[in-house]
């Protein structure tokens, strides 16, 4: 049963690494002028990988239960303390997850900055300019002065 847990951890590690790679692509897309060309495919792949990670986490929890450990992080820590192979894979998985978390946090900040910029640009475009007689109207003509 420990072999199955090690195999799950290896697969989970590979999936987290793939997820981190997609996040790196997302970073590159978010720093381009027109990210919308690339983002839909990135979001689709991220969603797919999140589903795989959820399935693997559930499998890992089931394997921990079968081995007599609690589920989640505490169970993995206990299992890692009893087997060097589990400990090695668990450490690799945690490091990969930390890297992915950092890139994801950075992407969130890039999105926040872009949204802030867009909000300010919209406000600038929505300023109510007082109507002056020397401004052109929508028809391209200067309106007649009507006095005050």
From TrEMBL:
Protein's recorded name: Flagella synthesis protein FlgN
Record bears the keyword Methyltransferase: no
Pfam families listed in its UniProt record: FlgN
Described purpose of this protein according to its UniProt entry: Required for the efficient initiation of filament assembly.
SUPFAM superfamilies: FlgN-like (SSF140566)
UniProt KW keywords: Bacterial flagellum biogenesis, Cell projection, Cilium, Flagellum
Similarity comment text for this entry: Belongs to the FlgN family.
GO biological process per UniProt: bacterial-type flagellum assembly
Parts forming coiled coils: none
